[in-house]
Amino acid sequence: MLVLLPPSETKRDGGTSTPVDLSRLSFSSATAARAALLADVVALAADETAMMRALKLGPRQSAEVARNAALLTSPVMPAIDRYTGVLYDALDAGSLGDASRAFAHESVAVHSALFGLVAALDPIPAYRLSHDSRVPGERLRARWREVIARQLEARDGLIVDLRSEGYVELGPAPRRPGSVFVRVVAEDGTGRRRALNHFNKRAKGLFTRAFLEQRPQLHTVNELIGWAESAGFRLDARESHDEAGGAARPQELELVA
C-alpha cells in the first residue's frame, strides 16, 4: 500500500551537511526530470525579481529565493521531517518509533513540486516551489504529469491518495480498483456533508500517523475501510460512474472528520 501525501509550503531549516544527492532518492525514474528542474530553479534564483514573480512571493518572502539559490549546497533531512504545517504537525513524524519510520519509507510518498514523488525518509533540502509555479515560464504539469503517472501506474497494491487536487493534476493516480482519492468532509446533524480546509489537513495527518503506528498490511479498499474504522476513522465509499453512465468501482472515499 502506498499513501500519497501533499507537501507543505513551509519547510523546516537545517539537516545534515551533505548536499542533495539525486541518486539517493526513491522513484529513480524521475532522476533526469529532477536534475533538469533543480538546475532551472537554481538558475532562476539568480534573478530575485523573476523568481519572486514565478513563485508568487510577497516582499517579505525574499528569503525563499535565497533558499532556492542554495539548493545544491544546503543541508538535507528526511522529507517527512522537512515539511511543517497543519498536516505534518498532526503527523508528528519526529516522535514516531524506528519501526514506524521504516514502515513510512516503504509505504508513504510525498509529492514534491521540485523532486516529484519522494519516499518518507528520502533526504531533501529546504526549497520553495508550488504546484502552480512556472519555471521558467512553463507549468510544472508539463514537467511532471507523465513521469509521475507512469510511476504510480507501475506501483502494485493499494494507492491511497491524500494529495490536494492541485498536486493530483501534476501526476494522477491510476483509475483502477484499489486506487482511491480521499476527500475530507464534515457531516452536520442532517447528514449533509461539506469539504474542509484547515481540518482537512489535520485529519490527513492524524490518519497517516495512525497508519504508521499500527502498520497494517492492507490489500483491498474494503480492508482499508475496515482498518480505518478499527482505528477510529470513518471512511465511506462514493460510487463513481464511467463515461457511458454505467456503475464503476468506487474511486473516491470520504474521510468524515
TrEMBL record:
InterPro entries: YaaA (IPR005583). Pfam families: H2O2_YaaD (PF03883). One of its GO terms (cellular component) is cytosol. One of its GO terms (biological process) is response to hydroperoxide. This is Peroxide stress protein YaaA.
